[in-house]
Amino acid sequence: MRLEYFQMIDSVVAFDAAAGTIHCRAIVPERSPVFEGHFPGYPIMPGVLLIETMAQASGYLILGLNELSRMPFFMGVKKAKFRKFIQPGATLDVHASLVHEGSGFTVTNARIEQDGPVCDAELTLRIMDFPAAELRGELVKRAEAIGLVPGAAPITEAT
Amino acid sequence: MSSTFDIVADVISETSEIPREKITPEMHAIDDLGIDSLDFLDIVFALDKKFGIKIPLEQWTQEVNAGKASVEEYFLLKNLCAHIDELIAKKNA
Description:
The complex is a heterodimer of chains A (159) and B (93).
Chain A: E1 11-16, E2 21-27, H1 33-37, H2 47-65, E3 71-82, E4 91-101, E5 105-113, E6 117-128, H3 133-146
Antiparallel strand pairs in A: 1-2, 2-4, 3-6, 4-5, 5-6
Chain B: H1 4-16, H2 37-51, H3 57-65, H4 71-75, H5 77-92
Keywords (chain A): Lyase
InterPro entries (chain A): FabA_FabZ, HotDog_dom_sf
Protein name (chain A): 3-hydroxyacyl-[acyl-carrier-protein] dehydratase
């Protein structure tokens, strides 16, 4: 994880296009300015960054399914629950699964585990054309770097 | 068996916390009920699941934005229900 750059996902452990699931890994850095404020003397991962981590795993799931043809943007979170504190240096297993593939939006269930449940939520992502070619280019590079191999079953529109 | 409108109105009421009795077929989802785009996505998600269809919201939005269809065509509740019925019929065909 590079918290200051919002790079939450370090690697893709497994991506299953047919099942609509992804398993990612994220290693919380030992040091970050984030921990200086959250909290002094008791550094733990902010809940919003755990949500962002689940959103990014969901995003890579969708990018894998649509073969990086359209961009998922995080737009809603429901039923978020935080079950334990996460300290610097922790290795997180981040899972996301496709719940619904709508027209221009996708709903996922996501969860983070570290020796048991850490947090979970239902996320909604809007699916749009890439607003900038540069963004797609960077995401293609990032997907390759984390080991995401886009699969079959691209997301298609209803007729 | 509930009509399409009854189901749609129930979903809108549950999702947007609008009293069920205030929702009528002649109402406009945006202008009359004040449903915003994010809430409408929640409604579409619930309706997709309820009816086992995929409401082509993106296509409808593009048509409205391009001036090819009026907002009422898709967001007046009675029209929305008619489109849902068409989608259900297409699914069952």
